[in-house]
Protein 1
Amino acid sequence: MAEDQWEREERYGNDSEKTEVKQPAPWNETVVIRSARADNDVLVGSASQAASLLQDNWPGPKTSPAYQAAVTACQQAMNGHAPGYIAR
């Protein structure tokens, strides 16, 4: 099966990422989050959106291992130290 554009950019980056400020590519699959506090689903399509959602809407203690792992994965993806699918 041939790779689509998002998968190639996720795996190898693209020419626009060779600048000094690296912007992570959007995820190739959107994550749907259903919050107990919200009446609707939230669609998350990037590590930066996920990090913002984690910071503002995490339901448990922010000292939990799950929260720390999620935030770390998002930060690494946003900084270009890990592929986006890890944060997803």
Protein 2
Amino acid sequence: MMNYEMFKEVMAEQIVNYMPEGFQNCTAEIHPVLKVNRMVDGLGLVPSYKELMPKKYANPQIYVNDYYEEYKKCGDLKEVLEMTAQALMDGYRDKIENKADGLLENVKDKLFIQLINMEQNKELLKTLPHRQFQDLAIVYRIAADIAPNEIRSALVDKKLAKKMRMKESDLYDVAILNTKKLFPPTIKSINEVLCELIGDSMPVGMLMGTEEEDIGAIMYVISNEQQVNGASSILYEEELDKLAEKLGTDLYLMPSSIHEAIAISAEIGNLEEIAQMVTDINMSEVKLEERLSNQVYRYDKEQRKISLATDTPNKRLDRIVAEQPITYGAKQSR
């Protein structure tokens, strides 16, 4: 099986051979692209197909890293090249059918919020309108398609925001309301979540090695109905307040991924041990692109406010030591 560098080279050389007639004189170009939490290799075609693709449309691209993962799974290069070519063609069709520009129509109905890590995404955030929330950044996305467990969306960068004639404050005001409508927040006990995953064929307590009623009283999963980018649900204090009132205590919030957070009573467990657990799970179980933070947060039920409960040294999410400490606050970038 080829290593990644060889796969990337072969992809650039051969992808055109799998494209339809009219693309045979194109050249594949690979360039670095900043994505959430990581740098990836984007592949696009340098066109000689002006009759097919109007100038006003940007060229679609795929991410070589993702298709290398598919190659590692199936081991069939031809199948992956065919899959890649189809993805590129789908991108062209989307743009030709005005789906990309259509995102700017009724944009207020499509804007939503995503939480990402500040330190890990310092370079990416230079290109995005955003605001700081503890060690995280609130960024904005436009939804193209919303389906169960899948959302097709695009990040709003500064160029797009300018085209939309929206300042960061405008984006926030619209997106914070819209996110709750598009992706209703959910808070479920770990019992409920596991039962949804495995059905009711086996008691949850038996699976977890403890009493079922104890588990439900200890751990709660904060997400949204789609279970995608659900960690942003912690921004809605009324949902957290209901849980805190139910438990009668403040809450510790553990960011298990960009998709969800785990809440427990702040009177349970040792904070240092909880923080270490969050870090260990992030580094061993969560994909880099889905990691949110190694910190633990505290929700104060009296003040109805989230603050950092820990200040662990591993601010980044890729095992690289952060160069400088983060200054926490309510900064905004426009």
Protein 3
Amino acid sequence: MATNFSLTTLFVAPVSQTTLPSAGSTQDLTAGQIGVFDNAYAVTATPGTAPYFYIAQGRENTYLQGSKRSDKIKGCSSGYPCNSNVTEWYKVGGCGTPTNQIIQIKDWTAKCGDVLTITLRAHSAYLDSLYFNGLTRSVTVQVPCCECGEDPCTEVDCDTLLDLVMEKLTGYNVTDGVIDWTSPISTAEVPDDPFTVSLNTYFTFSKVTVGDDDCVLQIEGKPLTKFGVPCDVAAFPH
């Protein structure tokens, strides 16, 4: 049994392009311009009549990078069903504002004297090149004992717990959810390892209010820098 596999190709069409090119080859596309080409790389208005066709998009002309091209697409020259290799196609409207991944942790239930562990698992074009199968990092917080007189408390104050967690995540002193970037915690609490990547490089930690809950830890992934991997569906932000 022979099976052909093809990776999904993502094309981002510019709003300014309202028509497809009517002449030329893939090498004649301007940066961002999208066209449909037959098996000879010539513009075609009837791709279904060719043995196969391509969708291509122009890119900035660099020494090592030409036009972006899809895999071979076999269309239908007659009615359905036909021997086409297209299983699904769709168009999605673009959004000009990128959205970072945000995780919110709330409803803290740690009790006095407990040990609380938070584990982060993250993937990105950078992290996957530094660590096998992405980054996994755990921080452990020793929940302080409660001093409530003759009537012992069952749970520690949420604000106090959140400050302790954020200190472990950031490596800096935290008071009432505000990180003091001028006051790192003692070196005894920070891993003395030059190869340990700071979580602050990839995440932003903050205390936020969600509804009636004013004690929520928000973890937001930072986007790739402008010097990062070029636009690529596989180059996920952190």
